[in-house]
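Q: A reviewer asked whether we had any structural model of the full assembly, not just the individual parts. We don't, so I'm hoping you can provide one. Inputs are below.
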Amino acid sequence: EDQVTQSPEALRLQEGESSSLNCSYTVSGLRGLFWYRQDPGKGPEFLFTLYSAGEEKEKERLKATLTKKESFLHITAPKPEDSATYLCAVQEGKDSSYKLIFGSGTRLLVRP
Amino acid sequence: DTGVSQNPRHKITKRGQNVTFRCDPISEHNRLYWYRQTLGQGPEFLTYFQNEAQLEKSRLLSDRFSAERPKGSFSTLEIQRTEQGDSAMYLCASYPSVFGPGTRLTVL
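A: Here is a predicted structure for the entire assembly that you could use as a starting point for your response.
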């Protein structure tokens, strides 16, 4: 069964303190791995899609990387406005629906 | 606005009542998805449409739930005889990575 596990569940950082969030996955052939940001009471906001091991993508202070078993979301010099829940999701390669299977997320709090 | 819209944004209902939510996807996207998200969890897949055809349903979608997408445009999700366990955020997504703002359902 396809599974996505995110760690840590919660992370508190001081402003400027860089760190990484982990997403481990088990899937029968990965079509794509997605990262989202979600603010309280809102829908997930798309950040990145990664398709193959070794791929990296960056956006402002965020950088996502992918291996055959996990993905990391690196946050460099975070600011308080980066506080949110970060969700990871996978698409299984043989699934014709292209639906996403999500992890439970990492709640990030960045203190000024 | 070219994003996904959902209405209403919030719905409070009493147990046993029926509720209906609407999703307007991005117009050129023929795939539409419904997910449910409870507090502290990631979204869970409920059902998927390609144009007007409902092609997959999750086991989470009990007989009290029904979804439609007439003419392959907007979609509705109806929950009959609501239960307290139905309280959640209901999310709609357009092909498959663009999510709407969600409808927060509270069943009293």
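A: Points you may want to mention in the reply: The radius of gyration of chain B is 13 Å. Residues 30 and 52 of chain B are 9 Å apart (CA to CA).
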